[in-house]
Give the backbone structure.
Amino acid sequence: MRDFLYGFGCGVGLSVLVAAATFWHRLTDHSATIAHAASAISAENKTSVPVTHILSYPDAAKKKLHLPKAIYTDPVEHVTAASTVMPSFANTTVTAVTNAQTGDTEIYTHRDALPWLAFRRTYRISAYYGMKTGHSGAVWRTEGTMGFMQVKALRFKAIGSADSDGSWYAGLGVGVRW
């Protein structure tokens, strides 16, 4: 009976976590934000380039790209290029280059080098259901990790897990991401 109640509690806890994550995701603003200049050019001064015309997408593209309302309602703001960047564990620099003769804009992406040392927190909560050695039936496992330091591709983390049979694990570790 104890195992059943513990497993039931893990299932209810997982359901609450999924509901909370879904609710938080809906409350979070996912509209586009102004990006900061890449560190490679942040100290450079801008110069004026005469342009006769610029090729742009229709105004409907501004709303499809989830730009702020002030942008997609302004008739003098135009979308000249947009790109989707694949998720990565390294920062990616996105550069838009406009040809002053043709008015066409192209986007270039570059995966930045991993830092030698970085302190940034990352979190993950997971739940699993499966078989465990030394146990006659299936068990629920909930697991949480917190990353706290990075040295190039090495990620240092704290981890904790609890199983529905009452066993648990807590520790520190290092992993490689690529």
